[in-house]
Design brief:
The chain is built from 15 helices and 26 strands. The strands form 6 sheets. It has a 9-stranded mixed sheet with strand order 2-1-10-9-11-12-13-14-15. Strand 25, helix 14 and strand 26 (about 475) form a beta-alpha-beta unit. The protein is globular, with a radius of gyration of 23 Å. The relative contact order is 0.09. Bound molecules: adenosine monophosphate. Adenosine monophosphate binds near residues 301 and 304.
C-alpha cells in the first residue's frame, strides 16, 4: 500500500479481464489494459523528468488514453491538471504561468500555436495527445515498460489541481489531495449503491470534477465500467440505455433527452439510476422525467473545491428542487452571511462545508484560502437552507455565477474583456433563464455614442479571447447601468429587465 488513490482503484476490480471502458466505436479496454497502460504512462512521465509533486497539465480531447495519462500521473506521484478544451491561447498562458507544470500536453492540431505559449511561460516540455489516442505522449508510453513500482504518496499529498474561474477575473487552482478524492469516491459508491456490475453512460467532459472524479473515480473504485461518448448525443444515449445502468449528467442532458420521442418508459427500463448535478435541476424537469420514464432523477451538489457534498437518497424520497442530505463523512451547515452564526432549519444563509472531501487550499494563494474558510468550514459561496427534514436546498449563488450548460461563467471575467474593447465605457454580464442551457450569458454594454459598436463586433472581438461557452448569447446596448445608492450595479434589475429573452 504505497499510493492510496491507485491502491483504491487496483482493489476495486481484482479480475483484470473485466472491461473498464468502452469507446463509442466499440473498442473495449479491460482492467488489465488499465494497469499496463497506466504503468507505461507513469514510466514515460518519469523518463521525461517528472518528479513527485510536479504538475502535468493537459488540454486534450476525451479519450481512453487521457484516462491512462491521468492514472499514470497519479502512479508517478504527479499532480494531474486538466484544462478545458475550449480555453484559448491567452487563457492557457495564465494557467501554465501559474501552475508551472513540468510538462504540458496538447492536441496535435494545437501544437504549433501552443509551443510559443508554453515556452513563454517557462514550461520545459510540450507533448501531444489527440482524440484518437495518438501523439508524442502516447508514443513515449508505447516505448515504455508495462510494469511500474508506484511512487509512494500519502493521503495529504496532491493528486490534482483543478482550476475554478475567479470572481475577480483570476482563476484559482484548487489543490485536491489523494485523501480528498479517495474519501469522495468511497462516499459516492456507498451512497449510490455502486457495484462492479454497473455500466455508466459517460458523456461528460473529463477536464471537470464531474466527469473526471465523480464519474470516473466512482466507476473505478467500484470496479465497474463506463461507455465513453465524446459528447452529449441524446439519441445514442437512449439507445445505450438497454445495456447500461447509470447515467450522470448536468441538467441540460435531461432537458435535451426529454425532447426525444424515443425517451420512453421501455427505453429506460433497464437503467438503475439517473444522476444530475453541477447546476440546479428544475423541479419541472424532475417531474417530466419521472412521468416519462418512471425514474426519479437523483440530484446531488458539489463543487471543484469540495468534490461532492450532498446527495438525494438512493432509498427514500428524491425531492425535486433539493440536493438532498450530506454525504457520509461530510458536514453541511447554513450560517448568517453577516454575523457567521449557524441558522436554524428553514432559514436562508451561506452554505458551509466540512469533511475529508474539502480541498487543501488554493494553489499559491494562502490569503485567498484563509478568506474562504470560516472556523474550519469552507464557505461555498452558495446560498441555501436546510429544511425540517434535513434536505439541503440551494436558493441562489452569492457570487453571481452564471451556469450555462453545466459550465460556470464568472461575469467579471467576461466584463473585463468587454470593458477592454475600444469605445466601451462599462458592461454588466448576467445569466438569463435559457430553456436549453439553464442560463444564457447575456451582456449589457454602455458604449460611447461615437464608438459605432455593434453586437456582432463585440462578439467577434471576444471570440479569440474567451472560451466559446463564456461568450454572450446576446449583447445589448444601454445608456447606463442601474445602480444602488452605494454605487453597485443592480444585476437583479437587469435580470428582471431581460427575463424571458430566450423564452421558456
Ligand atoms: P464547479 O466548481 O464547476 O463544480 O461549480 C460549483 C457550483 O455549481 C456550486 O458552488 C453551485 O453553485 C453549483 N452547483 C453544483 N451542483 C448544483 C446543484 N445540484 N444545484 C444547484 N447548484 C449546483
Amino acid at each position: 500500500m504505497t499510493n492510496p488513490l491507485f491502491d483504491l482503484i487496483r482493489a476495486g476490480q481484482p479480475d483484470l479481464t473485466r472491461p473498464f471502458l468502452e469507446t463509442a466505436e466499440g473498442r473495449v479496454f479491460t482492467y488489465g489494459d488499465l494497469d499496463r497502460r497506466s504503468a507505461q504512462y507513469a514510466n514515460a512521465l518519469v523518463t521525461l523528468g517528472l518528479q513527485p509533486g510536479d504538475r502535468v497539465a493537459l488540454q486534450v480531447e476525451k479519450s481512453a488514453e487521457a484516462i491512462f495519462a491521468y492514472l499514470g500521473t497519479v502512479r508517478a506521484g504527479g499532480v494531474f491538471l486538466p484544462l478545458n478544451t475550449a480555453y484559448t491561447g491567452p487563457e492557457i498562458a495564465y494557467f501554465l504561468g501559474d501552475a508551472q507544470p513540468a510538462l504540458f500536453v496538447c492536441d496535435p492540431a494545437q501544437e504549433a500555436a501552443l509551443v510559443p505559449v508554453a515556452q513563454a511561460q517557462g514550461v520545459a516540455r510540450l507533448l501531444t495527445l489527440g482524440a484518437d489516442g495518438r501523439g508524442t505522449l502516447a508514443d513515449a508510453a508505447d516505448a515504455a515498460s508495462e510494469s511500474f513500482a508506484d511512487v509512494a504518496r500519502g493521503a495529504d499529498d496532491l493528486a490534482a489541481l483543478l482550476y475554478t474561474s475567479g470572481t475577480t477575473g483570476r482563476s484559482k487552482g484548487a489543490m485536491l489531495t489523494q485523501g480528498n478524492l479517495i474519501s469522495n469516491a468511497r462516499a459516492l459508491v456507498e451512497a449510490w449503491r455502486y457495484t462492479a456490475d454497473d455500466v455508466l453512460i459517460h458523456a461528460l467532459p473529463i477536464f471537470h470534477t464531474h466527469g473526471l472524479f465523480v464519474a470516473t473515480n466512482v466507476t473505478l473504485a467500484a470496479g465497474a465500467s463506463m461507455i465513453f461518448l465524446p459528447k452529449l448525443d441524446p439519441e445514442l444515449i437512449i439507445r445505450l440505455m438497454d445495456r447500461a445502468s447509470v447515467l450522470m449528467g448536468v441538467p441540460t442532458f435531461y432537458t435535451r433527452l426529454l425532447k426525444s420521442p424515443k425517451l420512453t418508459r421501455e427505453a429506460a427500463a433497464g437503467m438503475r439510476l439517473f444522476i444530475s448535478g453541477s447546476a440546479p435541476l428544475l423541479a419541472e424537469t424532475h417531474r417530466d422525467w419521472h412521468a416519462r420514464t418512471g425514474h426519479a432523477i437523483l440530484e446531488r451538489y458539489g463543487m471543484t473545491e469540495t468534490n461532492m457534498n450532498t446527495s438525494n437518497p438512493y432509498e427514500g424520497e428524491r425531492r425535486a428542487g433539493t440536493v438532498g442530505f450530506p454525504l457520509p463523512g461530510v458536514s453541511v451547515r447554513v450560517v448568517d452571511a453577516q454575523n457567521g452564526r449557524e441558522l436554524i432549519h428553514g432559514a436562508i444563509g451561506m452554505i458551509e462545508v466540512k469533511g475529508p472531501n474539502v480541498f487543501k487550499g488554493y494553489w499559491r494563494m494562502p490569503e485567498k484560502t484563509a478568506a474562504e474558510f470560516h472556523d474550519g468550514w469552507f464557505v461555498t459561496g452558495d446560498l441555501g437552507l436546510i429544511d425540517e427534514r434535513g434536505y439541503v436546498h440551494i436558493v441562489g449563488r452569492g457570487k453571481d455565477l452564471v451556469i450555462t450548460g453545466g459550465y460556470n461563467v464568472y461575469p467579471k471575467e467576461v466584463e473585463s474583456e468587454i470593458d477592454a474593447l475600444d469605445g466601451v465605457i462599462e458592461s454588466a454580464v448576467i445569466g438569463v433563464a435559457h430553456p436549453d442551457f439553464g442560463e444564457g450569458v447575456t451582456a449589457v454594454v454602455v458604449a460611447r455614442s461615437d464608438a459605432g459598436l455593434s453586437e456582432a463586433a463585440v462578439l467577434a472581438a471576444l471570440e479569440a479571447r474567451l472560451a466559446r461557452y463564456k461568450l454572450p448569447k446576446r449583447v445589448f446596448f444601454a445608456d447606463d447601468l442601474p445602480r444602488n445608492t452605494m454605487g453597485k450595479v443592480q444585476k437583479n434589475v437587469l435580470r428582471e429587465q431581460y427575463k424571458g429573452l430566450y423564452g421558456g
